[in-house]
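Pilot study result, target chain (122 residues):
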Amino acid sequence: MLGGGVMARHRAPAPDRGLPGRSLDINEAAVQKGMAAVRGTFDYHIKNKKMSAAELDAMLAKQLVTTSALEDIRGADLVIEAVLEDMKVKQEIWKKLEGICRQEAIFATNTSALPITEMAAS
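Predicted structure:
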């Protein structure tokens, strides 16, 4: 998952379902903010004693890798981009991804207003 904002939080890898993943954001502060949001999605489970804070920590450590380096997603099977709704930013990321990721990787975007064909043309 590229981006840790509001949209990305709800589309992040599902560590509670055994799906490992990586979450990437622009810098370490943004990575930590995104992780806090992911942790917040499990507050209900902790409050209802379906999971302890230690179990959540262990699950996230095992299943979710965070990074601020785009190169760390090399080898990914699926890349979901959910960054700022700015065409130039998205196109720049897609260009970089093409040089980093395997040819077989699947690229997806979480855009609601920007034309996918324009994004892909980059």
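One observation from the pilot: The chain is about 45% helix and 15% strand. A full batch analysis is planned for the follow-on phase.
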